[in-house]
Amino acid sequence: MTLPINRVAVLGGGVMGSGIAAHLANAGIESLLYDIVPQGAGDDPASRNSFALKGIQTAIKARPAAFYRKDAASLITACNYDDHADLLKTADMIIEVVVERLDIKQKVFEWVAKHRRPGSILTSNTSGIKIADMVSEMDDELRQHFMVTHFFNPVRYMKLLELVAGEDTKPEVVESVAKFGANALGKGVVYGKDTPNFIGNRIGIFGIASVFRHMAAFGLTVEQVDGIFGDAMGRAKSAVFRTADLVGLDTLVHVFENVYEIATEDEERESFVVPDYVTGLLNDGRTGEKSGAGFYKKSKVNGKTQILALDLATLEYRPKEKVRFPCIGKAKKCATPQEKARAMAYGAEDDIASQCAWSVLADTLIYSANRIPEIADDVVNIDRAMSWGFGWDLGPFETWDALGVRKSVERMEAEGRDVPLWVKDMLAAGRESFYQRNDDAKMTFQMKNGDSLLVPMDPRHLLLSDLKAAGKEIERNVGASLFDLGDGCLGLEFHTKMNALDEAIFGMYGKAMDKLDAGEFDALVVGNQDAKAFCAGANILGILMASMQKNWDSIDSQIVELQNLMMRAKYSKNPIVVAPHSLTLGGGVEVAMHSSATVAAGELYMGLVEVGVGLIPGAGGCKELMVRYLGDVPQTIAYDPIPFIQKAFENIGMARVSMSAEEARDMGYLRPTDRVILDGSAVLYQAKKLALGMAAGDYEPPRQRTIKVPGPTAKAAVELFLYQMHEGGFATDHDVTVGKRLAIILTGGDCPWGTVRTEQDLLDLEREVFLSLCGEAKTQARIQHMLQTGKPLRN
Fold this sequence. Notes:
By secondary structure, this protein is an alpha/beta fold.
């Protein structure tokens, strides 16, 4: 039995507490944000609630944004402990997020015990205080409803949620909190134990400690270390020192010291002694990003921002240098995280970057293995904690498998390292990896008895990799695959670089719809599980080549083919549900907009950005946005379309990108009825459910839309806006050229006010304008610059 959680109280209005409250609001959950009454506060509520109100404002102003949309802050009620104690009984769950001092926490728990409703859940966000100490003054009933919920900061963006139960915690409490964290908040739940810093910080901080130790031996600089242990290693770009600056050196030191003080039996305890240069920075007030200086700082040189890196020997700053090592160059060419790990660890003997990478990896792998069963019972929870909490593509044991367990163990032992006995026992038993697949199931080696353990999977996570392993991939080409998702649902996956649209994808999309028309499947889901992008737009290299060769007929036929494909999808008699997530740009937006329905991940960065390369959306993006804005207005009603057209122009002409799925909805890229799922891993599953539900409900496609357009009158208003932008220095000459052409489409072309245009009319205008821009030398220069640098050219 799980306990319902519909309203939450958050105790502590600091950065973490307000971040948790903000993410609850993202999930549509009301919360009470408590803090103390300031000394000298008056009688008015604003004064007495000022600390909690400040926390809400901090969340509203946070960068990166804490809210999906700012008006969600209305779901948070500012409270104080003195005046709003009675409200606590309305909360189903209470999350304590006060300062990391046991005496203060126990005072808060005493207050909670007096005012909570029996049966409500109490959790602590601590990462360093033992549960046994926190519950020492609690009665039995409260102990049974108490546990740790350790969120990572920033709460909205960090997937990891560590759960730690006390000795007396009821199983249904753990189950309820886990379900709430995963289903409602979209978190990746791992189960830790009541040990210092739990799982993520224990392993992650040791990895940083290992870097501190080895970088000196190899004579590496701050930026060289970040180059080695960032994207090249399949980890977050912030790597080691940039991450330390973001977290705060004071926080980093606190975690180091906490392990050193409490984990007295840790064989690597001395690794957690804080280096002198870190202490020196702290003594100088250089705590990282929040103080403006840490291992890096920004400086203005001739009006331009320059990144400076710290010299660890002098604690002075110097210009950050480019990082070049053979293993990094090789890793950049690798297609998978497994290949990256091997490229970095098994480089040349004279490549100090590879030697350092291996040394830190070997330390971390052995340390992780030695922490079982101390901090977790299995390799899965450790791997997931590092992937979800630290941005590692592969957790420690997944990395070990990628390196080859036997090969790496032989090297470790040759170097005199002590490999944990249970790992050697696994190899002796003939098992070569921590993970393996048996039939359709993924299994992992169990340390305590040597058996295989089924890797626990959330049933809402429909993984294409599992379907492929189970032989459910029906057809594949260089750009896309078709999958049998089961129950009569077909799946279309893109797998080009950044999932950019190309002829191979278009062809496979057409085949997918052929199968629907033939009655082979009832519904189609378009989606993928690339961590970086659903679709970063169209492959613009072909457009550039055809434009430079003046092959206008080829471009025209491609646009017609793509427009027809989008319209076929939109008006398909079988439901087509698109599942966008993360980066969804240009053509990816057009694919989503021409669907029967959309199920989007909460983290959705969506926009029609073609103007950045001197073009306009050519596959129906302009047309469909106008349909979203004006297609439902009855033609018998007299209305002013100009404000709607201006909004569409701002979104497309200024290449605006949403910072969340809810912002994408506000911009018109998602419908009011489209679903938003906070757990990005569950998007495909939910899309499949919706698609099959629509099919079972005898889905019918929408009716064709027509739009009354204003013609040149509205175009003049847009051109005035462009003139003002140009005069103010915000738009270049070519921005104005592209903007004027875009205005032709959005205003319906050269026609009288009130002319009725069909969708095909607008598509024809799109194609005409797209072709005309392909012939512009400045557009070709923009495309070439984007291909060469990955950055837009302002010409």
